[in-house]
Amino acid sequence: MDITIDLKNYDSENPIFKRTASRAIIADGDKYLLIFSKYGDYKFPGGGKEEGEEIEATVIREVQEETGYRVVRDSIKKYGKVLERRKGEKGNIMVMDSHYYFCEVESEAGNRSLDEYEEEYDYEVVWMTLPEAIEKNKQITDIDACPWVIRDTKVMESLVNEQFFYENIFPCVPDTMKALIQEHTFEVDSIGCSGSHIFVFNNDLVLKVEHKRDESDGEYQMMKWLQGKLPVPHIVDFYTDGKTNYLLMTKLKGKMACDSAIIKDLENMARLMAKGLERLWQVDIKGCPRIINLDYKLDRALFSVKNSMVDIDDAEPGTFGANGFSNAMELYEYLRDNRPEEEEVFIHGDYCLPNVFFENNDVTGYLDLGYSGIGDRWQDIALAVRSIRHNLEDIGKEELYSSMYDIFFEELGIEPDKEKIKYYILLDELF
Length: 431
Known about the structure:
Largest sheet: 8 strands, mixed
Distance between the termini: 36 Å
Mean pLDDT: 94
Strand content: 15-25%
Number of helices: 13
Shape: elongated
Helix content: 25-40%
């Protein structure tokens, strides 16, 4: 585990105060030894390293002072570290390097020795499961009072993710795949990819785990076909047990189009999204193994409707209800009866900001290719403009949508077909 956190809640001109700390991860079954404060937050016991003190001695001292438990020295094992940058108590910039250790403690707790600061926060000792602590920490709104809640929540999530991975995923993959990822730390990618588990390892490999279905089979098929045609991940290994697909691939270069570093230049982001589409359309569709035209899409949509798989509550505002469609079947029938003429090219099928990567003012990769194949180019256009609008809403700049829309189509060099855009956004409601 190696995590970097920058709260950016400080004046960059202020002086920097550096501190090294040691923190303990102590478990008894599924419960962990944590410190609870009057603000309702939970954190791991630990604190700052004193001058001349060894880092492992720090964790022993801090655990005893805050909890009363004595750490068994031979049990101390390094887990990882968190580098924090945030506003300090005196208005300076606090740069905290926290080292986390797995530890065991003696069964009986002695007296605690809290300092004035810890007494003020009413520190209490609790044993609690990590999911419970994470849920409580995410309810904290006063980050200035307990800024460490972000740091320790991320560590808790890392531990929970690792436990899930090694109990449920790692035993299922073949030895060839295990050899490439074991002993490597990872982060969980939770952006997009509904129904998937994605683990990004520190050796630049990515493991995508999802139920075996048409889209996950299609992604593997299309990724193989697109090698050398588009910047897509290289397939390192693939395995299926008939129920679940395990796809190990290389990590793409660059950043997602929705990354703050990209989206801060909105005009350039809109132009790059257009360029990404143009690059897709340049792929020669001869020999493409998948066709995802309206015949295919409407068949899949009808299947979803008949099997009650459409989440009406997650639809765009106005799609259903008093001024919209009364139910999913009515929407399907509208789409079936009003299908537009298609302009077939190679399309991504889910062309939204998290699925496109940029670097150095260029498109460096495409992700989530399970819906890609031969289809109508307006499907990608529609989902692109919808994604741009959603991301502008997320950052509170929805008033800029009209200008970004114009820039996007200016870069494409075509006039927007509003009816087709509306059609494909409605169609996507059934998936």
